[in-house]
Amino acid sequence: MLYTIEKKIESEIKIKRSRFVAGLYPLSAKEEIKEILNEHNCLFADATHNCYAYLYGLHREISYYSDAGEPSGTAGKPILNTLLRNDLTNVLAIVSRYFGGVKLGVKGLITAYSDAVEQAISQSYLIEAKQLISYSLICDYASFENLKHSFQAIGGEIEQVTWSEEISFTLSLPVEQETEFRKIMAGNKHKIRLNY
């Protein structure tokens, strides 16, 4: 069974005066990767290196790593291997290193990057990785609470709620609940519709 993390986590370790700040980010779509990397790199623009790796898909079909200027094989690959070893997917791990003046050597770097990610994982809340589908929906105010309960009962999560003349929101739910979703939609066809 594969797992992902519930929410972003950040942790830090120090090794021979170098600081390693590991950030783990859950991924609900592979398109998020570039945006998260850009955001992280802006926040940690003063770091000596921002090395990363990610895994995506229920069969981990997509994987990538970058040493970001560290010697080849000393940062990105150890980060990726740590994610693999912990049965994770749909996760982006970025480790920002602040060089402390003492060289760690190849073995030292591999251990440092692995340990930074390992610590962040140990502080994360892991959940089973599921393939999700998302719908953008609109409903009237009177129906929202009942619909919300119906969607939550089938494992749906409501996000990005906008209150205006009607309520628009995004619903994410496990792909295997699509039939149940369609039943709820059919039973409430005058109260809710897809937002194209």
Q: What labels would you give this structure?
A:
about 35% strand; five-stranded antiparallel beta sheet; alpha+beta; Alpha-Beta Plaits; 5 helices; about 200 residues; 2 domains; Ribosomal Protein S5, domain 2
The total tally of domains equals: 2
Strand content: 35-45%
What is the distance, rounded to the nearest whole angstrom, between the alpha carbons of the first and last residues? 35 Å
Shape: elongated
Say what the CATH topology of the largest domain is: Ribosomal Protein S5, domain 2
The main sheet orders its strands as: 2-3-6-4-5
Rounded Rg: 20 Å
CATH class of the largest domain, named Alpha Beta
Structural class: alpha+beta
- At the fourth level of CATH, the homologous superfamily of the largest domain is Impact, N-terminal domain
The averaged pLDDT comes out at 89
Query: Largest beta sheet, briefly?
Result: 5 strands, antiparallel
Point out poorly predicted stretches. none
> Portion of residues in helices?
25-40%
Tally the beta strands. 11
**Helix-strand topology string:** EEEHEEHEHEEHEEHE
The CATH architecture name of the largest domain reads 2-Layer Sandwich
How many distinct helices?
Answer: 5
